[in-house]
Amino acid sequence: MKFVDEFRDADLGQALAAEIVATVEPGRHYKLMEVCGGHTHTIYKYGVDDLLPENVELVHGPGCPVCVIPMGRVDDGIAVAHEDGVIFTVFGDMMRVPGSRGTLLEAKAEGADVRMVYSPLDALRIARENPEREVVFFAVGFETTAPSTALTLMRAKAEGIRNFTCFCNHVTIVPPLRALLESPDLRLDGFIGPGHVSTVVGARPFEFIPADYDKPIVISGFEPLDLLQSVHMILRQLAEGRCEVENQYKRVVPYDGNTQALRVLEEVFELRPHFEWRGLGFISHSGLKLSGAYADYDAELRFTVPGIRVADPKACQCGEVLKGVIRPWECKVFGTACTPERPIGTCMVSSEGACAAYYNFGRFAREREVV
Amino acid sequence: MNTEEHALAMIERVRSKPLRFRDERVTMAHGAGGKATQALVEGLLAPAFGMTELADAGAVENLALTTDSFVVKPIRFPGGSIGELAVNGTVNDLAVSGAQPLALTLSLVLEEGLGADELRAEVEAIARAAAAADVHVVAGDTKVVERGRCDSMYICTTGLGRFDPRAQLSPAALRPGDHILVSGAIGEHGTAIMLARGEFELAAEIQSDTQPLWPAVDALLEAAGASLRCIRDATRGGVASVLNELARASGVAIVVREAAVPVHPAVAGACEILGIDPMYVANEGRLVAFVAPEAADDALAALRAVPGCEGAVEIGEVKTEPPGLVLVETAFGGRRVMDMLVGDPLPRIC
Asked: Which helix (DSSP H) or strand (DSSP E) does residue B222 occupy?
């Protein structure tokens, strides 16, 4: 496949791997966090970590938007889905995320009209085609997906579509990173920066990471060669005693982001005072809700949402996994009580969740022999 | 033992236990051909009927018997339709069991209001496909349900075949060293259906691969005889699910070379955009064959000589350790586990 295979070239991968080996200081252990779930997925899908030296460890961060939705919000979504006349639309990954009383997939089997969509515009089309029904879109994601939700709402308003609302769970990337960096049990040497979210926000918002916390960050693309190159760039910063924001994903990420998308976000959303993150707790100014101009399209205002805070399951250590404090297999329930088919924590649900990615792809360490 | 090894050992212990059906309700995942389907079959159906080995077709003396229902949506798609599928799906279950298909029964569930032209087209498709597969439709039934109670039409076919004396196939027969063949490019049927639903606003020239497989099985049996360990058609859950089922059933490891697996560029492109792995996408005319090493070259040559299987290739090998696991050597030079499908192939959202 043109423009894809080039970024998966095994020979170039080996060459980069050799450069990485030449850059690391023997005896030093490096812990790098990839912030984005998409990176976690790539690392396991292609076996990128098999190409890294033993002393370079990748830690999976909080950047899977599905994984950070708390149980209470899932319960709220299910409650709205069960309301009379509602068509509840949602991205596929959200269907299997457990709330305190089941998943949206189970709600569908119980009779709720839950439909999987690939774009918020699909949800709007459903609203247009079903004027007698209330169509709700369960919006999740960082600044990556928020502009498409915003554009959809702008279109709904322009067309005067009244039976469409958004249950907004959009979040922003900088506050959780800051919360993470403030966390005392964190030991990291550098960050692989989120590529997709940076196409919107740019690289500039990450300048606080080297400035305030003395950690290098390299914004990275999602192909295996992108990741290897980003690891190499971070290690080189460390070797040369530099500490700055670098942009490996220049082919897509402008340093100042996508100003048009940012303007759209500004118009349609406003920051919530605080928002709950699974495993990380409440983080100030980390969630988005619809702005006053779009209040008519806010599902939380049109429907009664229970809004009950549900504590994460006791056995679940998603929080520690998201913070990179423990590796997925160090969780007490990993792979036994909590599996992709019966997830307890959200890290096990989405294919981008650190636990699911490790369970599905990474369970076989390279040291174990195949005979 | 370090924590990672400990965790892996725990997982293997959990995985090796028989699956149980513990869900409160049936969800769409139970129909996707992955783990939930397996739990339904192994945990509820097989024990209820005292079935120990789950094969594509059951044996009644020297006859093979199988049954299948077809609920595909939409009923017509590039490269085929529900009628053609209803014949090929069932004769292929017979074929991969090592039985030559002889006869079919046909049961139609029709939705009130279905156009006569649509029905006629499907009946003709069934007749054409049966003639192409060299089987006769010998009995049937029709039912009609109220509008909205079924989606245009559902078809159920039952197939009868005669076991071929050359065949000694079993899902438990895989041995370390066996070679793994696929009969052509994978993922085309599932991708064609997904695109035909028009939900993605994606367009590509992808045709369903639906075709009868007895000629391919016949050629394999002729070339490899008793060296042919097992054959499966890679339908729901795709090639990945077939490999996992057999790795479990035979207690062996399977290693697949990703770069060797044939995928049509349009299928690869559509799957890339949707975040789906073609290894999990359904096929309706592709088989996976496991052959002892000494007969592998002959088997592959014989397979390639069969019309529709020109693209057959070898994709991997059976190993000893770790038993029950399927491993992929990625084209990039890494290695990963390829587990059974969980849920429906859910695309990633960002």
From this structure: helix B214-224
Q: Please work out, in degrees rounded to the nearest 5, the angle formed at the alpha carbon of residue B289 by the alpha carbons of B287 and B291.
A: 165
Closest CA to A221 of A206, A209, A243, A203: A203
Question: Which chain A residue is nearest to residue B176, measuring alpha carbons?
Answer: A371
A75 CA to chain B: closest CA distance, Å? 18
Query: What topology does CATH give the domain A71-172+257-302?
Result: Rossmann fold (3.40.50)
Residue B4 contacts A where some CB pair is shorter than 8 Å: yes
Confidence of residue B205 (pLDDT cuts 50, 70, 90): confident
Report the C-alpha gap between A358 and B337 in whole angstroms.
9
Is B332 in contact with A46 (Cβ distance < 8 A)?
A: yes
**Sign of dihedral through CA atoms B14, B20, B23, B25?**
positive
Does A98 score more than 70 pLDDT? yes
For residue B34, what is the nearest residue in chain A, using CA coordinates?
A341
Q: What is the predicted pLDDT for the residue at B344? A: 60
Q: Which of B24, B332, B341 to mutate to probe the A interface, most A CBs <10 Å?
A: B332
Q: Mean of the pLDDT values across residues B69-88?
A: 93
pLDDT band at B349 (very low <50, low <70, confident <90, very high): very low
Residue B318 has pLDDT above 80, yes or no: yes
Nearest to B342 among A37, A144, A340 (CB): A340
CA B9 – CA B1 distance, rounded (Å): 10
Distance CA B344, CA B350 (A): 18
Higher pLDDT, B34 or A125: A125
- pLDDT surpasses 60 at B72: yes
pLDDT at residue B347 tops 50: no
pLDDT value for A7: 87
Q: Which of residues 271-290 of B touch A (CB under 8 A)?
A: 272, 274-275
Question: How confident is the model over B132-155, as a mean pLDDT?
Answer: 95
Least confident of A221-230, B36-45, B214-223: B36-45
Contacts of B267 in chain A (CB under 8 A): none
Given a contact cutoff of 8 angstroms between Cβ atoms, the answer to whether A227 and A109 are in contact is no
Mean pLDDT, rounded, for B168-188: 96
CB distance B333–A49 less than 8 Å? Answer: no
Q: Is B262 on the interface with A (CB under 8 A)?
A: no
What is the average pLDDT score of chain A? 90
Give the model's pLDDT for residue B348: 38
Instruction: Count residue pairs from A and B with Cβ separation < 8 A.
Output: 154
Closest CA to B141 of B59, B67, B61: B67
Write down the pTM of the prediction: 0.86
B27-36 pLDDT, tens digit per residue, is 888 887 777 8
Q: Which domains are delineated in chain B?
A: 55-163 (3.30.1330.10), 179-337 (3.90.650.10)
Closest alpha carbon within chain A to B330: A46
Inter-residue contact A59 to A31 (CB < 8 Å) = yes
Chain B residues in contact with A50 (beta carbon < 8 A): 333-335
Instruction: Confirm or reject contact between A144 and chain B (CB < 8 A).
Output: yes
Measured CA to CA, the distance from residue A37 to residue B116 in angstroms comes to 50
Does A93 contact chain B (CB < 8 Å)?
A: yes
Stretch among A65-79, A193-207, A216-230 having the lowest mean pLDDT? A65-79
For residues B121 and B116, what is the distance between their CA atoms, to the nearest angstrom? Answer: 8
Residue B165 to chain A, least CA–CA distance (Å): 33
Q: Which of B3, B35, B325 sits opposite A364 (nearest CB)?
A: B325
Are the CB atoms for B234 and B279 separated by under 8 Å? no
ipTM, interface predicted TM-score of the complex: 0.80
Verify whether the Cβ–Cβ distance B4 to A141 is below 8 Å. Answer: no
Nearest to B98 by CA among B175, B20, B173: B173
Q: Per 3-state DSSP, what percentage of chain A is helix, strand, and coil (rounded to 5)?
A: 45, 20, 35
